[in-house]
Design goal:
Layout lengths: L1 H48 L3 H4 L1 H21 L4 H21 L3 H15 L1 H13 L5 H29 L4 H6 L6 H7 L12 H20 L3 H19 L7 H5 L1 H30 L5 H29 L1 H22 L4 H28 L6 H30 L5 H27 L3
Length: about 450
């Protein structure tokens, strides 16, 4: 009788976890969309407030900086406080930012609204990393991470499409209004999330502030070209290292960095994220400059890859559970080499071929993301899961900003040269070499894992 009750309870917990993942996917779709939708509205906002491109870019830069810093802060807080309470707080702050944005009559208010939105929405990347680790056993964690990949892919696919439709039918302010729809998931989060409080203890806010300030300085240096911020970021990072070594309860335990497998996993995941953002940044560029496509045409070429990666996300997660993350890394590497290699050879050719090659590379990227999230999670002790996975989320944004900045500089220097297709081909070949390096390093560091 007791075993029957225990089994029933276990099944109930499993069913609750599955429903929680469904809610998380929907929330992730809206979170990713909110991060990308405003790209479409930047020209309109610039015209409304008489701004130059460098000024209006703060609509996106401010959001990305706060979002990146917030992801690791929420991750750390999840080690000490209830994830249910953190999600409630984050989504309410996000809603406040959306309301402020709808009522904004100055550009400063628009930027403030985006900062508020990011301060709330940053709870989502932390939750997407923590929920699979906390609510699913190791043998089923890949499938859960694959499910979160579905939300990320769908958000990326739908963001530009929905934003274009909203901006075309009404004011850019409606983008803030649309963001409020995500609040519908809050009651479901509160229903399915447990009341676990984490490990009680005080928070090293000084250490967290130093880490956040260093991250912000580096991101500003990368995205705004303010290279003097590198010096400021390096000084802040040094102070952060001193702080976590001196205080009794550090924001990030030094032992976490002494974990060689965790550090190696972060580095590989950083390179993987850089590859992903590189393709996301480059594809619209060469489809516009070489294939002469309109924004609608570019979206039509990119859409199949995003949908394919969403459909394959859970399959990749199940494969990781059955065969291991190493097998998924190998499959992802093969797909990436196939996609990047064909793109390098056919960039500038017929758009339908480009759409096909992008499908292979995007599925490969999704598989690699699932495998690396699963790999990093296995290197962490339970009490370090929140801050460890939060750092993984934060590094994804830094990798994206760095890769897009570097590729943008390369393209700027070659913009006036003839034969622009060769520049894209060379970048893609370099990306193929990076994939080979990732596969080799993973095999070297995690072969026995």
């Amino acid at each position: 009788m007791k075993s029957d009750v225990a089994e029933k309870g276990m099944l109930t917990e499993e069913a609750r976890a599955e429903k929680l993942m469904g809610v998380l996917v929907v929330a992730l779709v809206f979170s990713v969309m909110n991060g990308t939708m405003f790209n479409v509205a930047l020209p309109v906002i610039a015209e409304r407030f008489s701004l130059v491109p460098s000024q209006v870019s703060w609509v996106m830069t401010s959001y990305m900086v706060v979002y990146a810093v917030g992801s690791v802060v929420y991750g750390k807080l999840a080690d000490n406080y209830s994830l249910k309470s953190l999600l409630t707080f984050g989504m309410l702050v996000f809603a406040l930012g959306s309301i402020v944005g709808m009522a904004a009559d100055t550009y400063a208010t628009v930027v403030a609204a985006r900062i508020l939105q990011a301060a709330g929405a940053a709870v989502m990347p932390a939750a997407s990393m923590i929920v699979p680790v906390r609510y699913f056993p190791v043998e089923k964690r890949g499938r859960a991470l694959g499910t979160t990949a579905v939300g990320l892919a769908l958000g990326s696919a739908l963001g530009p499409v929905v934003a274009g439709a909203i901006a075309g039918l009404g004011s850019w302010r409606w983008l803030f209004l649309f963001s409020l729809v995500s609040l519908a998931t809050l009651p479901l989060f509160r229903k399915y999330l447990g009341d676990d409080k984490g490990r009680p203890g005080r928070i090293d806010w000084l250490g967290g502030g130093l880490l956040g300030a260093a991250t912000a300085a580096y991101l500003l240096a990368i995205t705004q070209g303010k290279w003097q911020m590198i010096v400021a970021g390096s000084v802040l990072l040094l102070l952060f290292i001193v702080r976590i070594r001196k205080t009794a309860v550090p924001f990030v335990p030094p032992a976490l960095f002494a974990n060689g497998r965790f550090s190696a996993g972060l580095f590989i995941a950083f390179l993987a994220a850089a590859l992903n953002f590189s393709v996301t940044f480059m594809a619209p560029q060469f489809l516009t400059s070489l294939n002469n496509l309109s924004p609608g045409g570019v979206g039509a070429v990119l859409f199949p890859a995003a949908i394919a990666s969403a459909l394959m996300g859970r399959i990749g997660g199940k494969l990781a559970d059955r065969r291991g993350n190493g097998v998924l890394v190998g499959l992802a590497s093969g797909l990436l080499l196939l996609g990047y290699g064909l793109l390098a050879g056919f960039v500038g050719e017929a758009a339908h071929w480009i759409a096909l090659f992008l499908i292979a590379s995007q599925i490969g990227q999704t598989f690699l993301q699932i495998a690396m999230s699963g790999t990093v999670s296995r290197t962490l002790a339970k009490e370090q899961a929140g801050v460890g996975m939060g750092m993984l989320a934060m590094l994804n944004f830094i990798a994206g900003a760095l890769s897009m900045s570097v590729i943008g500089k390369v393209l700027d220097r070659t913009a006036a040269e003839a034969g622009g297709a060769s520049t894209y081909s060379h970048i893609l070949i370099a990306m193929c070499l990076t994939v080979i390096f990732i596969a080799g390093m993973y095999r070297l560091r995690f072969r026995k894992g």
